[in-house]
Amino acid sequence: MNKKEFFSAHDPKIVSKLQNSIIGIAGAGGLGSNIAVSLTRAGIGKLIISDFDKIEPSNLNRQQFFIDQIGTPKVIALLENLKKISRFTEYQVHEIKLNEENIPIIYKDVDILIEAFDKAEMKKTLIETWFMNYPNKPLIAASGLSGWGKNEILHTRKIDNLYICGDEETNLIEGISPMAPRVGIVANMQANLVLELLLNNYENNKS
Question: With a threshold of 0.85, does the pTM exceed it?
Answer without folding.
Answer: yes
